[in-house]
Design a protein that fits this description.
The chain is an alpha+beta fold. Among the domains are: 71 residues, DUF1653-like domain (SH3 type barrels, Roll), CATH 2.30.30.320; 69 residues, no CATH class. The chain is built from 7 helices and 5 strands, in the order E-E-E-E-H-E-H-H-H-H-H-H. Strands 4-3-2-1-5 form a 5-stranded antiparallel β-sheet. Strand 2 and strand 3 form a beta hairpin.
Length: 209
């Protein structure tokens, strides 16, 4: 029997991509268990898949060359420690560094490079160390929403994110609720999700009475 995935564990899809388990969730209508997991590549999207599908075996007839038998295989902790933790989403306007161009029409005779001082060498080493030590972190707002125990708490967290969410976060929240966003502006999609949460929160309160 396959081990139930736990938050923080890293799994490898049989096609090779890596994913980190965010949480286990329960479908509000059917009670079905869902696995919420985040890609460790590209735009670090968050997905939801039924637990039964997450644990199923690979169709050997459809994928005869698959390396493993399981759809998702857990990576041992010793190997998982080497995988960097993802940011909620990479910057939309990344800074691209390019080397300075040399003009072929007006070549410049190279000059001897000046010897760097000890202070410059040390400051550059510290800067390089700082850049390499920065690890991406998941969005705290998304984690707070997923960790909320009730729809009332989820609604409070979602309301606090107004004006701060992007399309990727809205899609992740919708996936955790087993919803699919329709076309529209960011504000319209936010309002749609908020209305759904308000409905679920009222249903939850009525059910507890």
């Amino acid at each position: 029997m396959n081990q139930i995935p736990q938050a923080g564990e890293i799994y490898q899809h049989f096609k090779g991509k890596l994913y980190r388990i965010v949480a286990l969730a329960t479908h509000t209508e059917t009670g079905e268990q869902l696995v919420i997991y985040q890609a460790l590549y590209g735009e670090f999207q968050v997905f939801a898949r039924p637990l039964s599908m997450f644990l199923e075996k690979v169709d050997a007839k459809k994928y005869p060359d698959a390396a493993g038998k399981d759809r998702f295989m857990r990576i041992p902790m010793a190997e998982a420690a080497a995988v960097s933790r993802p940011v909620a989403a990479p910057s939309e306007n990344p800074v691209e560094l390019r080397p300075a161009a040399m003009s072929s029409e007006n070549p410049v005779e190279p000059r001897p490079a000046a010897m760097p001082s000890e202070s410059n060498v040390e400051s550059r080493a510290v800067a390089a160390s700082s850049e390499n030590s920065v690890e991406p972190q998941p969005d705290p707002g998304l984690l707070a929403f997923l960790d909320a125990d009730s729809y009332e708490e989820k609604l409070e967290v979602f309301a606090s994110l107004e004006g701060k969410v992007d399309l990727h976060m809205l899609n992740a929240i919708a996936a955790s609720l087993d919803l699919e966003l329709s076309e529209g502006s960011l504000e319209e999609q936010y309002d749609t999700l908020k209305s759904c949460l308000m409905t679920l929160e009222r249903y939850e309160c009525n059910r507890l009475r």
